[in-house]
């Protein structure tokens, strides 16, 4: 079965590799155009484009699936399209090209967390269990019938990045199994059932920790935005980046945003109990251990995060 693979970030690479290893004929890879990376803004292929080049697979670069991209997709004559975090909508004209349609690997238990940031939103919401599904892509936002499902526990210290890495590998197996079943004529897609929730793309503001919120909510927020866009706070009018914090329910005397040393730990007050900073990146400096940063401060008692 000839497969068009659509994906852009590194999280899609395990799926591409799994389909190659399973013996599928990858007709081409659809990915977003090269983008500027780093301080020097060097134009760089997407991770999926780079992997496709290593595998000797034709690459179709398109910021959106317009008429030109659709024509190129049709020209490679795919039987089915597999899509994993491509980063753009697929219009009806393109949906109709493969005879088996487009099969989307989505990192949530649909209809929960439809949208661009399902893993991040699940962590931020405090979900204990999430997962991944394969479903038939339709015009609606992640509304199509589901072929296969897997579940994954969310650990109390999991970041969105760690959870997504696990799901990308287990989901790759699910995607290969789904395409095999479709090719054998044994696949059966079932309508989605359950409560719908939305997972819009994260913005920089989603990483701004509000110290008046309860400690548990702050911890979930910080883990959900790690590694991107990252957790941050404001100190002396400047944005300061933070890595995920640890809960410290034993300390309840700090006001929200106030800092204090507790042994070798740097604590911050919240709307409930304190949290412990792990690593911090002051403006213009590299990420460092919170204790090292604290040693360079004249007095933590006068420091307040906003």
UniProtKB/TrEMBL annotation:
Residues involved in (6S)-5,6,7,8-tetrahydrofolate binding: 108-111
Every Formyl transferase C-terminal domain range: 201-297
SUPFAM superfamilies associated with the record: FMT C-terminal domain-like, Formyltransferase
InterPro entries tied to this protein: Fmt, Formyl_trans_C, Formyl_transf_N, Formyl_transf_N_sf, Formyl_transferase-like_C_sf, Met-tRNA-FMT_C, Met-tRNA-FMT_N
Occurrences of domain Formyl transferase N-terminal (ranges): 2-177
Pfam families (alphabetical): Formyl_trans_C (PF02911), Formyl_trans_N (PF00551)
Catalytic activity: L-methionyl-tRNA(fMet) + (6R)-10-formyltetrahydrofolate = N-formyl-L-methionyl-tRNA(fMet) + (6S)-5,6,7,8-tetrahydrofolate + H(+)
E.C. number(s) listed in UniProt: 2.1.2.9
Enzyme class, spelled out: transferase
Signal sequence, start to end: none
Tree of life domain: Bacteria
UniProtKB keywords: Protein biosynthesis, Transferase
CDD domains, A to Z: FMT_core_Met-tRNA-FMT_N, Met_tRNA_FMT_C
Function: Attaches a formyl group to the free amino group of methionyl-tRNA(fMet). The formyl group appears to play a dual role in the initiator identity of N-formylmethionyl-tRNA by promoting its recognition by IF2 and preventing the misappropriation of this tRNA by the elongation apparatus.
Similarity field: Belongs to the Fmt family.
Identification of the protein by name: Methionyl-tRNA formyltransferase
Organism: Pseudarthrobacter polychromogenes
Organism placement in taxonomy: Bacteria, Bacillati, Actinomycetota, Actinomycetes, Micrococcales
């Amino acid at each position: 079965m000839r497969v068009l693979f659509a994906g852009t970030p590194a999280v899609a690479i395990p799926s591409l590799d799994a389909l190659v290893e399973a013996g599928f004929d990858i007709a081409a890879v659809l990915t977003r155009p090269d983008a500027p990376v780093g301080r020097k803004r060097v134009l760089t292929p997407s991770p999926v484009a780079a992997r496709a080049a290593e595998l000797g697979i034709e690459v179709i670069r398109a910021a959106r699936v317009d008429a030109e991209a659709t024509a190129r997709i049709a020209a490679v004559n795919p039987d089915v399209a597999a899509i994993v975090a491509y980063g753009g909508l697929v219009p009806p004209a393109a949906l109709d090209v493969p005879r088996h349609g487009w099969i989307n690997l989505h990192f949530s238990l649909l209809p929960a967390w439809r949208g661009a940031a399902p893993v991040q939103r699940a962590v931020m919401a405090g979900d204990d269990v999430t997962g991944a599904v394969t479903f038939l892509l339709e015009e609606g936002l992640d509304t199509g019938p589901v072929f296969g499902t897997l579940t994954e526990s969310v650990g109390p210290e999991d970041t969105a990045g760690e959870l997504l890495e696990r799901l990308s590998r287990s989901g790759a197996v699910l995607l290969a199994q789904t395409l095999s079943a479709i090719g054998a004529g044994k696949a059966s897609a079932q309508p989605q059932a359950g409560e719908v929730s939305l997972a819009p793309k994260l913005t920089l503001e989603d990483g701004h920790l509000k110290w008046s919120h309860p400690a548990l909510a702050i911890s979930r927020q910080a883990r959900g935005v790690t590694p991107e866009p990252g957790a941050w706070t404001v100190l002396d009018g400047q944005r300061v980046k933070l890595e995920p914090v640890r809960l410290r329910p034993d300390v309840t005397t700090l006001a929200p945003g106030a800092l204090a040393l507790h042994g070798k730990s740097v604590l911050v007050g919240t709307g409930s109990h304190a949290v412990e900073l792990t690593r911090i990146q002051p403006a213009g400096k590299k990420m460092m251990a919170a204790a090292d940063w604290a040693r360079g401060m004249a007095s933590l008692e006068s420091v307040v995060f906003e």
